[in-house]
Amino acid sequence: MTSPAPTVVFDLDGTLVESAPDLVGALTAALAAENLPPIPESEVRAMLGAGARALVERGLKAAGVTLPEPRVLELYRVFLDHYDAHMADRSHLFPGAEGALDRLAGRGARLAVCTNKLERFAVKLLGELGAAERFGAIVGGDTFGVAKPDAAPVLGAIRAVGGDPARAVMIGDSMTDVAAARAAGIPCVVMSFGYTPVPARELGGDVTIDRFDELDAALAGLGLL
Length: 225
Prior knowledge:
6-stranded parallel beta sheet; two-stranded antiparallel ribbon; magnesium; 2 domains; Phosphoglycolate phosphatase; Rossmann fold; PGPase_prok; alpha/beta; hydrolase; DNA polymerase, domain 1
């Protein structure tokens, strides 16, 4: 008897999309509104993964600045406005991502995105990159009122595409993704090229891979293909 096709849930930033340059640009705009200098991209990349509000807060901390909450919210809005207008200026799908998605779709896999980016921005970014229609669900950090590492958005994404957690996997690049997968009771494949201050192979994922053309074999090793 053939096993049901798996549900594959992808993180977005640092997993499917190289989005750091445009996120850095938005953070630079927010810091400039407070007359603060930009932070090098190499440093910002390790701050990504927890959502825009957290990125602004981490940027201020890195700049050695403590601001009252109302001002932090103002800078957060500056970030959002800038990012909304420039999210796809330099962002692009990682090499091999489209081919991997095509292969999974050809095998009948249910595909979803679960990111801590605001849902409307996740949908817009994937749309501008021509990839939104590949996914049966695009879940953001605000979709269910909680964000990863909580299990709720991951499980919600699986349900939204009619999947079964017993036949699901998370594909991510950070400790947040691994922890969310653990909370949801599903395995996690870690992409080594993403955004994390901790080396990818030390995150505790079930499998770590370096390229999208290794994904099929990784899923097969987990018994999902």
